[in-house]
Amino acid sequence: MKKIITFAVMLTIGSAMAAYAADAKTIYDKECAKCHGKEGKGDTKMGQKLGVKDYTTAKVQAEMKDEEAIKAIKEGYKDKAGKQLMKPAEGVSDDEIKALVKYMRGFKK
Fold first, then answer.
1. DSSP the chain
2. How many CB atoms lie within 10 A of CB 42?
3. What percent of the chain has pLDDT over 70?
4. CATH hierarchy code of domain 2-105
5. What pTM was estimated for this model as a whole?
6. Which of 73, 77, 76 shows the shortest CA–CA distance to 100?
7. Which of 47, 75, 88, 107 is a plausible cystine mate for 42, CB 3.0–4.6 Å?
8. Bridge-partner residues for 99, per DSSP?
9. Per-residue pLDDT reduced to its tens digit, 63-80
10. Which of 9, 14, 36 is nearest to 25 (CA)?
């Protein structure tokens, strides 16, 4: 009986995590891809104009700290002169933001 309950709990957690991953892709495609590109390369017109980093490179991924990425998504991102480069995400939960950062980590080649 314990094994069945454990399996059911693991299945539920797995399903929830898969849902967050699907949500992260949906959010990314809707809110982020216009600047960061579908594959995270930053190769869109707007991405090039803003100097968006290429998240497919190991160097950029290594430099990106999860806490900083979460903060940028929540609060937006400004350059050193204070000019807003990225607006804060609206209507996105903390769990969705964490899933979004994890999704972006998957761009590394």
1. -HHHHHHHHHHHHHHHHHHHHHHHHHHIIIIIHHHH-TTS---SHHHHHHT---TTSHHHHHH--HHHHHHHHHH-EE-TT--EEEPPP-S--HHHHHHHHHHHHTT--
2. 19
3. 80
4. 1.10.760
5. 0.77
6. 73
7. 47
8. none
9. 999 999 999 999 999 988
10. 36
